[in-house]
Specification:
It is a single chain. With 549 residues, the protein is of the alpha/beta class. The chain has 3 domains: 36 residues; 228 residues, MutS, DNA mismatch repair protein, Chain A, domain 3 (Orthogonal Bundle), CATH 1.10.1420; 189 residues, Rossmann fold (3-Layer(aba) Sandwich), CATH 3.40.50.300. The strands form 3 sheets. A 6-stranded mixed sheet has the order 6-7-8-4-9-12, with helices on both faces. It has a 4-stranded mixed sheet with strand order 1-5-2-3, covered by helices on one side. Strands 10-11 form a two-stranded antiparallel sheet. Helix 3 crosses helix 9. The chain is elongated, with a radius of gyration of 31 Å. 34% of the residues are buried.
């Protein structure tokens, strides 16, 4: 009998070790969350194809306006902005944040609701940490495909559901006839088990991706169950919606948890055989799809509510990581006001203050800060209208869609030249301003063509935009535009300062058009051959003297 006590002792040691290991893992996770909160997220590879899934499904299935399009997103390097903000702890949060940054709000109600949640989390750090712990234990699963069930669950359902229930009943019927004919009972049971095994593995292989999604959904439900046990959330935005939708699906959290799980203990192997013989995974999958289809709106609300909570923690951490920030003030004027605002990606930014209350042209010499300034304005326009956060001391604007034409590139695959791509980009702006209120940002308009036609076409396009209810801010080297459009557009500029040490920039916005040029000076300070510099200077003087410049 002594060996029994050895086994009991060994079991106690194993259980005790597992408990200690779990406690240590929890402490490590807690320390990691505390130490990383309010810090700049570590740059890591993002699977944007996976992260963008929810956004893609929304675009394909919902007719939403005021969506930041792919050109504007790329122009403003919004993937980098996303990575700077993102510290979400679940895949649902990551996908929801990505979509939220694309979805410019038309009114303040949703932003106020988000702000109330963020404020609650800031004022209740212990509750926030508990939420983080539960979210982190759910974890991330790339290409989890949960969002496909929101919009396309019907396509996920298996045909002839009743057949799986019939096949699951046959082994029971075979067992029941054992009282009549044992031999026939055993033989028929074996045949039905083999048949069901064939159906099980063939079906499971066909829906393996969907089963993985269902398993992650089970983890999400387990997380929500723990989140809702925390006291004090009753009056906090998004929690009541989360609770209401969770009640509908809560019983699924245990049913689905074993799907796709690999466990090779004796009991687990026996349970696996039973699942195969009675097609349990397949039938549970069918029941889940049926329930999602029946309560599709509630399924979507559950997804969005959890996404809002994870995103709110992320936005609060982003704010804490900034030198300073503000929440935007919205008005009905066609203007943008800003005090000490900066670009969130710059490690040592130079803040600018001012107010742009009319369509404006920003001129200035090379590398003086024109492009960075308008990108910073555009990015803050998006952040203010999506996550209710601006990298500034003060920032005020009206609700409007941010649309840009900046980082134009040749499209070799489609055979489009730089100029063709550029005019397509501008044409989409002209179309969009007819549909909704916009704030437009253009960098170096029509630089892909010759000077005379560029200035003529640019002036015509900018005059057209001036006569529409939009705010247009363009950066350009073409000083001629400041004269041609002096009655329609205000002028601002950035400039350089020449010293014995070289060319210096203060990156400060100044009123009026630029009066300086520095392209040839930069050739000199970059140690180009003096003959090149002298020839260029002589040619400029010649152009000026003959008034063909």
């Amino acid at each position: 009998m002594d060996y029994i006590w050895y086994f009991i002792l060994l079991a106690i040691i194993v259980v005790f070790s597992l408990i200690i290991s779990n406690i240590r893992a929890t402490k490590r996770l807690k320390a990691l969350l505390i130490n990383s909160f309010g810090k700049i997220p570590k740059q890591k590879k993002c699977e944007f194809e996976s992260i963008a899934a929810y956004h893609r499904y929304k675009l394909a299935n919902l007719n939403e306006s005021n969506i930041i399009d792919s050109i504007t997103w790329d122009d403003l390097d919004m993937n980098l902005i996303y990575k700077r903000i993102n510290c979400c702890l679940t895949s649902v949060g990551e996908e929801y944040l990505y979509d939220a940054l694309h979805n410019v709000q038309k009114e303040e109600s949703i932003l106020i609701k988000r702000e109330k949640l963020i404020t609650y989390l800031k004022e209740n750090p212990d509750h926030r940490l508990k939420l983080q712990m539960n979210l982190a234990k759910t974890g991330k699963y790339n290409y989890n495909d949960i969002s496909s069930f929101i919009f396309n669950a019907e396509a996920k359902s298996l045909k002839y559901n009743y057949l799986y229930n019939i096949l699951a009943l046959i082994p029971l019927l075979c067992i029941s006839i054992s009282f009549i004919n044992t031999q026939a009972s055993i033989l028929s049971f074996i045949i039905s088990a083999i048949l069901n095994g064939f159906v099980y593995y063939r079906t499971k292989a066909k829906i393996e991706r969907e089963l993985s999604a269902i398993q992650y959904f089970s983890s999400v439900l387990q997380c929500v169950n723990k989140v809702l046990k925390t006291q004090g959330y009753e009056s906090v935005p998004f929690f009541s919606e989360l609770k209401k939708s969770f009640i509908i699906f809560k019983h699924l959290r245990t049913k689905l948890s074993d799907i796709m799980r690999k466990d090779f203990s004796d009991m687990a192997v026996l349970a696996e055989y039973l699942k195969i013989i009675f097609l349990l995974d397949i039938r549970n999958y069918n029941k889940t799809i049926k329930m999602i289809l029946k309560y599709s709106d509630d399924f979507h609300i559950l997804y969005k509510s959890l996404g809002e909570i994870d995103m709110a923690i992320c936005v609060l951490s982003f704010r804490e990581s900034l030198p300073y920030y503000c929440t935007p003030v919205f008005h009905n004027e066609n203007s943008i006001g800003f005090e000490n605002f900066y670009h969130p990606l710059l490690s040592d930014p130079v803040p600018n203050s001012g107010k742009i209350s009319n369509d404006s042209i920003i001129t200035g010499s090379n590398a003086s800060g024109k492009s960075t300034f308008i990108k910073a304005l555009a990015v803050n326009g998006i952040l203010g209208q999506t996550i209710h956060t601006n990298t500034a001391k003060e920032f005020n604007l009206r609700f409007s869609l941010i649309v840009t034409s900046m980082a134009v590139r040749d499209n070799i695959a489609e055979g489009d030249s730089y100029f063709i791509i550029e005019i397509k980009s501008l044409k989409r702006i002209l179309d969009k301003v007819k549909e909704t209120t916009c704030t437009c940002f253009v960098d170096e308009i029509l630089k892909g063509t010759n000077t005379i036609e560029r200035i003529a076409a640019s002036a015509s396009i900018l005059k057209y935009l001036h006569n529409i209810d939009c705010l247009c801010i363009t950066a350009s080297h073409d000083i001629e535009l400041t004269h041609i459009l002096s009655n329609e557009y205000d002028n601002y500029h950035f400039r350089e300062y020449i010293t014995d040490d070289g060319i210096h920039f203060d990156y400060k916005l100044k009123e009026g058009p630029s009066k300086t040029k520095n392209a040839i000076k930069l050739l000199h300070y970059m140690n180009f051959d003096s003959k090149i510099v002298e020839a260029a200077e002589n040619m400029v003087n010649k152009f000026i003297n003959f008034k063909t410049w």
